[in-house]
Amino acid sequence: MTQLKPPLGQADILRAFANYDAMPGDPYANLEHILSSTFSRTELNSLLPLVFNMSASWHLHLPLIDIHGDSGAVDRPPAEHYLLEARLTEVGALALGSRWVPELVQLVNGNLHTGGDCPGFPPERVLAATRLPESSDAQICEAVGPPAHPGNCVVEGDFSALSKGQRTSLKFSARLAVSDRRINVTCLPPGSAAASLVEALKRDLKSEAVRSFADGRPPFVRNESSVKDRVTVTYTKKTNADALLRWIEAHELIQVGCSVALPAPLPNMIRNLRGLSSRPDEQVSITDVEQVLGTAARSGDI
Question: Which of 36, 204, 265, 285 is least surrounded by Cβ atoms within 10 Å, i.e. has the fewest?
């Protein structure tokens, strides 16, 4: 009987990078060469979406692959892989020789970006909770805090139900600020991109409902994401600013709701991390990860 090979995954991709010496601090290597040195053409093509997901800093708190070149964006696919160079991030390298770091990455990054239902959490707070001595469920949940998105959008919902492993709903919203007859939109929710938001607002702001409180003239929308990572909506002096703000707040690309659930209660997941990280045969300590995150934060990589 033919034995089926287990499906390839993140661990296989990390090993391929290590075998090619595409490690942090090493020169970037051609992505095509890295992958083809380990995988067949069929395997390579099937793994490319996962490779790009592992590098998507706009989706992930802890990217595992560092791509040099046009790695895409929320609303734009990456360049062809043979045009790109890559190497592992520091966290990706730590995950290679650890049993608990891959579990940490899974909890921190979540899987909403791949169509799953697990939100991510701030890595520093998850590490702080993992460091706690034996503690109650409430203390662990307080230490971790609510879910968070790398784009720093507002996250609202029943965090208590989520932490207990129950299915619930979360709302991710952009941050809006008003100044000088202008509404600044920053920190977009998952799945929203500045370019698509600008096009949608330009179209929808021409509706009769908006004209009724915008003095008959649609506000001017501008994409400033290339400079200040924001979209601006400028309105006239006669516009009802409060009504316009409420209308923008309710726009489908400004706030995104989704059904979420963790695979287990959050305290249990933290205790599992604590147990794995303290095993005698574990090569990576919590301090190792904290040092990497501190270095990445200072360099602007996270």
Answer: 285
Is 209 in the same domain as 273?
no
Q: Side chain identity at 285, as an amino acid letter?
A: S
Asked if residues 66 and 87 have their Cβ atoms less than 8 Å apart, the reply is yes
Rounded Cα distance, 264 and 164, in Å: 7
Which residue has tokens 């619930």? 168
Nearest one of 21, 14, 24 to 54, comparing CA atoms: 14
pLDDT tens digits, 56-98: 998 999 999 999 999 888 878 899 999 999 999 999 999 998 9
Q: Which domain holds residue 113?
A: 101-146+262-293
Q: At what angle do helices 41-53 and 10-19 cross, to 10 degrees?
A: 100
* Residue 89 belongs to a domain: yes
Query: Would you state the structure tokens that stand for residue 264, as one six-digit string?
Result: 């287990």
State the DSSP H helix or E strand holding residue 155, giving kind and residue range, or none if neither.
Answer: strand 154-157
With H, G, I as helix, E, B as strand and everything else as coil, classify residue 2.
coil
Read off the pLDDT of residues 22-36 as tens digits, 9 standing for 90 and up.
999 999 999 999 999
